[in-house]
Amino acid sequence: MANEKESTMIGVIILDDRWHYTYVNEYAAALLGRCSADLVGKVIWAEFPLAMRYACYEQFHKSFQHNTEVYFEEYIQSINQWFQVSAYPFEGHLHIRLHKQISMEMSFLQERTAQMYIEHAQDIITLTTRDGIFRYVSPAIQRLLGFEVDEILGIHIFAYCHPEDIEALRGSFMEEDGLFLNNDQGIMTCRFLHKNGWYVWFEMNYKWMLSEEGERSQKLCIWRDITERKLVEERFVQAQRLGQFGSFERELTKNYILWSDEIYRIHGLAPQEQMNLRDAIQLIVPEDREKVGLALEKAVRQGKVEVEYRITRADGELRYIKTQIERSRTDSNRLIVRGLMHDITGHKLIEEELKKSKANLQISQEIAGLGHYSWDVIRNELQWSDELFTLLHIQRDSYTSQMDLFIHIVHSDDILKVKEALREALQAGSLDMTVRIIVDGGIRTIHTMAKTTYDEWGRPLRVFGTVQDITLQKQTEELLRRTEKLNVAGQLAAGIAHEIRNPLTALKGFAKLMCHANEESKLRYFQIMQEEFNRIELILGELLILAKPQVLAYQPHDVIAILREVIELLNTEAIISNVIIDLTYEPDLPLVRSESSQLKQVFINVIKNAIEAMPTGGNLRIIVRKTANHVAFFFEDQGQGISEERLPRIGEPFYTTKEKGTGLGMMVSFAIIDEHQGHIAYQSKLGVGTTVHIQLPASVEG
């Protein structure tokens, strides 16, 4: 601080270039309601976060950025006083002075009559500085905008103005070349923020108060709430724009009718002074003329009626009309009918399209075996289409609209999967799931796909989806899978026979030796023979796993253990074909929730294909690693490769690149991986080899 004597009535604050207090005199600390020692070293905006909405925030930054001294007025809530503030940068610090109190120059508000008016006024009365800082706000602010007076004083008027209205409001404060752009008084409309977050429309009457020198010093505003009026205006404008309404009037004893310009436009005619009644009737489609006549008679008898009919415009276009007719009397007691005519062609066309679409949807759903549903997430209500009841063989009277109760018909093994899929659908926006349900005491398999809709804040509102009963399809796939298992088992028979022949030969030899051996040798021979028996039993067990039907049981499994069993099973065939199988994997791989026999079938198909693709021998590298929330398998062979045009067709039934293959093996493999929520892909290059990439989700239990 400079060696100058400080006035006890001047607050002095010094900030460094990072907005830390480095000095606060006692008077300034008292104004802030704090102790000097507590403030030094603290960040000003952290200690007084609300100050970022006040004039000081903008002015302090301006002084630092432009290296200039600034002067402005600031309001301190704690003592309800205004101060003149100056700030100037010096040697990397900002020196701030709070000078003597200033009057608000509101003598006109000190009068008793004015005070009574302000306290009870329905409108808000404000006084702002030349720059737009609130210096006075009447008590009505709390009723209309929810703010207390102290929350507004000292804050810039733009802080509460709607972003779209700021430019218009700014115009009443801006000046160019010393001249203000707006008049000294006027009226404008703008929206102001309510404390609860919405905006309120106001009509602002403003008048600039002039200083003794004739310059604008303060701005007096009266704010009137016109929100209701604005809503009515907006609705009226929208109705005019979208409604396509026209009005008419007819005296019953006359042969003409008076139409508004809009009705002439609806009929494709140029406006006239009056329309001949016979010509007007001719524009109505003949089949509807009697209906319109009866409606007119009913209106005369009962006073009011509504009728829909069709007209043919002057250009030949057919239009749909909805007319409201009302009976009335003129000042001279003459009977007339008047009303509104509305062109509803657009609505009718949409209605017809919706009817056609609904009918087509029903036909399509019946052909495809589809039904649809809608889940109201907010109310937790689930609505099913009629086709869905028929499709799932469920009686409507036994149906519940609560999603939680619907879960009860899901197979117990699939309940967790359904709940997880629903949670993901609410977050990700889509659903694609196959699930088993129990109806009429039997198990059915359904496939559902759905999309989620959200509100403007991103909250899920509704899930709409389709359901297809794929029970028969799944049964067919299972039959194909079992057939393929038997086919694989048959192909493995030769290799297994060779594998079994070796231990059988050993068993025969040791059986003969035991006839002439001593007791010690017999025991050793018996142990060797027992190991060979165990070897045969293991091989036969693996063959039976492939041949017999398995009960599906998805459990967390160690995929490396499964791979090793398959490699051991196929190793004989690989050796015969001069193929070396090399398995490498990362440590601490997660478990995979799977059906082990099905994964074995996939691995057998992939490895056998790789061996057969290398008739002259080669290396088969199997790499397993963790990727994100999945376990990835790479089977890389050095075979003949697959041409680019054939790759997309792998997995199609009866499509194969082998001379005696059926193509069912990979079709079944694709289906198994899909059921495990995984992914399988082929990459290949002729003469180089093929890589099969399989990806399976890691088990959350693992």
From TrEMBL:
Residues 110-170, 257-303 form the PAS domain. SMART domains: HATPase_c (SM00387), HisKA (SM00388), PAC (SM00086), PAS (SM00091). Its EC number is 2.7.13.3. Residues 186-238, 305-356, 429-482 form the PAC domain. Residues 495-700 form the Histidine kinase domain. Keywords: ATP-binding, Kinase, Nucleotide-binding, Phosphoprotein, Transferase, Two-component regulatory system. InterPro entries: HATPase_C_sf, HATPase_dom, His_kinase_dom, HisK_dim/P_dom, HisK_dim/P_sf, PAC, PAS, PAS-assoc_C. It catalyses: ATP + protein L-histidine = ADP + protein N-phospho-L-histidine. This is histidine kinase. It comes from Paenibacillus alba. The lineage of its organism: Bacteria, Bacillati, Bacillota, Bacilli, Bacillales.
